[in-house]
Design goal:
The complex is a heterodimer. By secondary structure, chain A is mostly helical. Chain A contains 4 helices and no strands. The relative contact order of chain A is 0.04. Chain B is α/β, with parallel strands linked by helices. Chain B folds into 4 domains: about 200 residues, Spore Coat Polysaccharide Biosynthesis Protein SpsA, Chain A (Alpha-Beta Complex); about 80 residues, no CATH class; about 180 residues, Rossmann fold (3-Layer(aba) Sandwich); about 150 residues, Rossmann fold, CATH 3.40.50.2000. Chain B is built from 24 helices and 24 strands. In chain B, strand 17, helix 17 and strand 18 form a beta-alpha-beta unit. In chain B, helix 18 crosses helix 22. The relative contact order of chain B is 0.06. Classes of the chains: A mainly alpha, B alpha/beta. Chains A and B meet through helix 1, helix 2 and helix 3 of A and strand 13 and helix 14 of B.
C-alpha cells in the first residue's frame, strides 16, 4: 500500500532529524580529533623545536640505557623524598 | 620495522667475500642479492654456497656502476636498499644503525657510513678516511642530517636508500661516480641524507703506488663526466700540498706510536702517493684531451673511451624532477583537471552553530600584518565554538625546517591565541565544512581539496597589484575567477572584486585591539614628532614617496623629529631621523601615544595601522583616491588625506603640526570613529561571509 502524504512527511522529518544527529556527531568527532592533535603538538613543542626524536635517541645503546637508568633513579629519589616529607609533615 | 635488502655487485671478489658474507650473516638483513659480472675466480662458488644469498649473473659488458645498482634495486623488494662493495665488511651494529638512520626523519632518502681502514692500510689512506668522514658527523660525533646546500657526497661502498627516493631519482647510467650524482640529485629534489657513524664498514683499497695513481685518474675522470668538476693543477701549489700532506701523515703515525724507522719508510711512499695523486687527478679531469691509447694505459679500469666530449656539447647536468616543491603545481592541476568537486549541499549547514573551518595560510614571519588579521579572526571564531584548524601551504619550503608543533606555537605567540592543530601541507587533509584561502598562493591548493562543503577566500588585498607583468600577476588574478566566495577586507576591495572579476563577495572592516591601542593619558605627547611606517621591502607602501615627503617637511621644518619604524634595515634618506625597527604591538601603542602626526601610506587596500594610530589619539596622513574613502567617507573623516605627491603630503603633515585646533579635532574624531571597529565586529562579518559561502552551493 502506498504511503500517505502525512506518513511520507513524518518519514522525511525522521530522516532529517537523523541526518542532523549524524552531522552533529561528525562535528563532535572532528572537534575531539583536532583537540587531540593540538594537545599532542602542545606537548611535543620543545622536542620538535630542537628536532629531537626521543624514540631514536633512546634506541641508541650508548645514550638510551644510561638516560633511562638516570631518569628512573631520579623518579625513585623524588618519590622517596615525597614519602619522607609526608611522614614528617603528616597526612 | 622496514625490510632491508642488501645488493653487492661482484667481480673477482674472492679475497674479501668470505669476510663480507660472514658479517652479513651476523647482521641478518631481510634479503641479500649479489650481482656477478663475469668473475673468473671463486666468487660465484662462494656466493652460491652462502645461505640466503641470491646470485644474479650478468655479462661483463652489461655492467655499469649506476645501471647494475638500478638492476639490483629492481630485483629486490625491501623498503630500504643497501649497497656494499665486495671489499667492504660491515661492522657489528651496521644494520641497526642503518635502520635508525631512516627513522631520524621521513625525508631521509639515503644514509651512508664511514669506511674504516683495515689493519694493513697505508697511513695515507687511513688518515684520509678518518679526516674525510669526520667532517660529516655532528660536533658530538653523532649522526647528522644533510640537506640542500650541504656537501652532496655519497659513497656506494657503504650506503642505503629509501626505495621511494631511489624510485624517484634512480642512479644515472654513468661510468663512474653514480653515487655522487645521486647525492646531488637527491638534495636538489628536496630529500635529506644522513651520515651515520655507527654504520661502519672496513674498507680500503690496497693498491701499489702506481695503481693508486691510475685509480685517481679514473676517479677524477668520472667526476668530470658526472659533475663537470675539473681538478686545478699548479706545480708550485702541488709541491706545497705534497709536503703538507706528507708531514700530516708522519704526524699521524707519530701520534699512533710508530717508531722513527717506520715513519722514515712511509715518508718516501707518502710523497710519491700525494705527488702522484695531484698529477693523475689533474690528468683524469682532462682525460678527453689525451690520446685514447694513453688514456687506456693511465686507467686502472683500462677505459679508452671518453675522448670525444671536448668536441661535442659540454657535459649536461641531468636535473631530477621536483617533488612537492613546485610553486605552480596546484595551479597547473586546477587548469588541467578543474577543481575537486564539493560535497553535495547540506541543507541547513550554513545555520549550524559549529562549523568545521580549515584556514589555509601561506608562510608567515613575525610582524606579518595579514597573518595577524587572519589569526585574530580565527582565534575569535574558535572561541565561538567553531572547530578550527590551520593548514600551511609552503611550496617554496620557507618554513620547511619547522615542525607543526613549532608552527602552531608561533601563530599562538606572534599573532593571537589558538587552541587548534596546525598541519604542514595537505597530506593529512580530512575535510571541512568550509576551506578558507587567505592569499593568492593558497587558492589553487584549496580548489584541489575534497571532502569540503564550501570554499571561501578571505581577501586582505588586491594582490595582482603586488606584481609587475608576470606569471604571479596572472595567477593572482585567476584566483578571483573560480566563483569562490570572497570576504574582502574593506568595502573598496569588495566592490573591486565584484566589478572587475564578477566574484561573489562580502566585506569586513579590520578591527582594532582596543586593549592595546587606546589613548594614554599617562604618556606626555611630544610636540613636532612625525612617525612613519617605512616598510620599504613592501612596494605598495610607497616608501620612496613617503621619504620624499619627509625630506620636504625637513627642509621646511628642520627641527621636526622624524621617527621611522616597521623595518629592520634603516632606509637611506636625505634627512636625519631616529630608527626603531620592527615593534611589538604594545611598543607601537607607546610610540603612537607620544607622537604628533602619523604617516602611513598604502597604494592598494587600506591597512590596519592608520586605524591603530587613530585609536591612540594620533592624527594620521594617508593617500587620497585609493581606498581610504570607502571606510572614512569622501573627505577622509578623521584622516588627513593627500594625493600621491610629496609636496601635498608634506603640506598635510605641516598643517597638523601647526594647527593645534585641527589636530585636536582630528584626534577626537579618530578615537570616536574607530571605537566601533573591533575584532569581534570583524569576526561577525567574516562569520557571516563563511555562512554565505555555505549557502552559495545550495543556491
Amino acid at each position: 500500500m502506498a504511503a500517505t502524504g502525512t506518513e511520507r512527511d513524518a518519514e522525511l522529518e525522521e530522516l532529517r532529524a537523523r541526518v542532523a544527529e549524524l552531522e552533529a556527531e561528525l562535528v563532535e568527532q572532528a572537534a575531539r580529533t583536532e583537540r587531540i592533535v593540538a594537545a599532542a603538538q602542545q606537548r611535543t613543542y620543545w622536542l620538535d623545536r630542537w628536532h629531537l626524536d626521543l624514540d631514536a635517541l633512546m634506541r641508541r645503546r650508548a645514550i638510551g640505557a644510561p638516560l633511562d637508568v638516570a631518569f628512573r633513579a631520579l623518579r625513585k629519589l623524588r618519590h622517596g623524598l615525597q614519602k619522607a616529607r609526608r611522614r614528617l609533615t603528616g597526612p | 620495522m622496514s625490510r632491508v635488502s642488501v645488493v653487492i655487485p661482484v667481480k673477482d671478489g674472492e679475497r674479501w667475500l668470505p669476510e663480507l658474507l660472514a658479517a652479513l650473516a651476523r647482521e641478518a638483513p631481510d634479503e641479500l642479492l649479489a650481482i656477478d659480472s663475469g668473475s673468473t675466480d671463486r666468487s660465484r662458488e662462494l656466493l652460491r654456497a652462502a645461505p640466503g644469498v641470491e646470485l644474479l649473473e650478468i655479462p661483463p659488458a652489461e655492467f655499469g656502476h649506476g645501471r647494475t645498482r638500478n638492476l639490483g634495486a629492481e630485483r629486490t623488494s625491501g623498503e630500504i636498499v643497501a649497497f656494499l662493495t665486495q671489499d667492504a665488511t660491515p661492522q657489528p651494529g651496521w644494520l641497526a644503525a642503518l635502520r635508525a638512520g631512516f627513522a631520524l626523519d621521513e625525508r631521509v632518502g639515503a644514509v651512508f657510513g664511514p669506511h674504516l681502514p683495515r689493519a694493513d692500510t697505508s697511513p695515507m689512506i687511513a688518515r684520509e678516511l678518518e679526516r674525510h668522514f669526520a667532517t660529516f658527523a655532528a660536533p658530538d660525533g653523532s649522526p647528522a642530517l644533510q640537506g640542500p646546500g650541504d656537501e652532496p657526497f655519497l659513497s656506494n661502498v657503504n650506503a642505503a636508500y629509501r626505495r621511494d627516493c631511489w624510485e624517484a631519482i634512480r642512479f644515472r647510467d654513468v661510468a663512474y661516480s653514480e653515487d655522487q650524482a645521486f647525492g646531488r640529485d637527491l638534495l636538489a629534489a628536496g630529500w635529506l641524507k644522513a651520515y651515520l657513524p655507527d654504520m661502519a664498514v672496513l674498507h680500503a683499497h690496497d693498491y701499489g703506488a702506481l695503481e693508486f695513481m691510475r685509480r685517481y685518474f679514473d676517479e677524477y675522470r668520472g667526476l668530470r663526466e658526472t659533475t663537470g668538476h675539473v681538478e686545478a693543477f699548479q706545480p708550485l701549489g702541488a709541491l706545497r700540498t705534497v709536503r703538507a700532506e706528507t708531514a700530516a701523515d708522519l704526524r699521524w703515525l707519530r701520534e699512533r706510536g710508530a717508531p722513527a724507522g717506520e715513519r722514515a719508510r712511509w715518508a718516501a711512499r707518502a710523497s710519491v702517493h700525494h705527488g702522484g695523486r695531484r698529477v693523475f687527478s689533474a690528468l683524469g679531469s682532462r682525460a678527453e684531451r689525451l690520446p685514447a691509447p694513453l688514456r687506456e694505459r693511465l686507467s686502472l679500469e683500462g677505459r679508452a673511451d671518453g675522448g670525444d666530449t671536448a668536441a661535442a656539447l659540454p657535459p649536461a647536468t641531468p636535473i631530477a624532477p621536483l617533488r612537492a616543491d613546485d610553486p605552480y603545481g596546484a595551479a597547473a592541476r586546477v587548469m588541467r583537471d578543474g577543481p575537486a568537486p564539493l560535497l553535495p549541499p547540506a541543507p541547513g549547514l550554513a545555520e549550524h552553530e559549529r562549523l568545521r573551518i580549515a584556514l589555509v595560510l601561506p608562510p608567515w614571519r613575525r610582524g606579518s600584518g595579514g597573518h595577524n588579521t587572519l589569526m585574530q579572526l580565527l582565534s575569535r571564531l574558535e572561541r565561538r565554538g567553531h572547530v578550527c584548524s590551520v593548514w600551511l601551504h609552503d611550496p617554496h619550503g620557507e618554513l620547511r625546517a619547522l615542525r607543526p608543533a613549532v608552527l602552531r606555537r608561533q601563530l599562538d605567540e606572534w599573532f593571537a591565541p589558538f587552541g587548534g592543530p596546525v598541519y604542514a601541507g595537505f597530506e593529512d587533509w580530512h575535510g571541512a565544512d568550509v576551506a578558507v584561502a587567505t592569499g593568492w598562493q593558497t587558492v589553487h591548493p584549496i580548489l584541489l581539496l575534497d571532502q569540503t562543503h564550501a570554499r571561501a577566500y578571505v581577501v586582505n588585498d588586491h594582490e595582482p597589484e603586488f606584481f609587475g607583468t608576470s606569471t604571479e600577476r596572472v595567477l593572482a588574478e585567476d584566483t578571483y575567477r573560480h566563483d569562490i566566495h570572497c570576504v574582502a577586507a574593506s568595502p573598496w576591495l569588495r566592490d573591486l572584486l565584484i566589478e572587475r572579476y564578477r566574484a561573489p563577495a562580502d566585506a569586513f572592516q579590520l578591527g582594532v585591539d582596543h586593549a592595546i591601542y587606546a589613548p594614554r593619558p599617562d604618556v606626555a605627547r611630544r610636540a613636532d614628532t612625525v612617525v612613519y611606517y617605512a616598510r620599504h621591502s613592501t612596494d605598495r607602501r610607497a616608501v620612496p614617496i613617503g621619504l620624499m615627503a619627509l625630506g620636504e617637511l625637513h627642509r621646511r621644518r628642520p627641527q621636526t623629529r622624524v621617527v621611522l619604524f616597521g623595518t629592520d634595515k634603516p632606509p637611506p634618506t636625505t634627512f636625519p631621523y631616529e630608527h626603531l625597527g620592527v615593534l611589538a604591538p604594545p611598543q607601537l601603542a607607546a610610540l603612537y601615544a607620544e607622537a604628533t602626526v602619523g604617516l602611513c601610506l598604502s597604494l592598494t587596500n587600506f591597512s590596519l595601522m592608520p586605524k591603530e594610530m587613530l585609536a591612540c589619539g594620533l592624527p594620521c596622513v594617508e593617500l587620497a583616491g585609493v581606498s581610504a574613502e570607502s571606510i572614512f567617507g569622501a573627505d577622509g573623516g578623521p584622516l588627513a588625506l593627500a594625493p600621491l605627491d610629496p609636496v601635498a603630503l608634506a603640506d598635510a603633515m605641516e598643517r597638523l603640526l601647526d594647527d593645534r585646533d585641527a589636530w585636536e579635532r582630528r584626534a577626537r574624531a579618530g578615537i570616536d570613529f574607530v571605537a566601533s571597529h573591533t575584532w569581534d565586529v570583524a569576526t561577525d562579518e567574516v562569520e557571516a561571509g563563511l555562512r554565505h559561502a555555505l549557502r552559495d552551493p545550495e543556491a
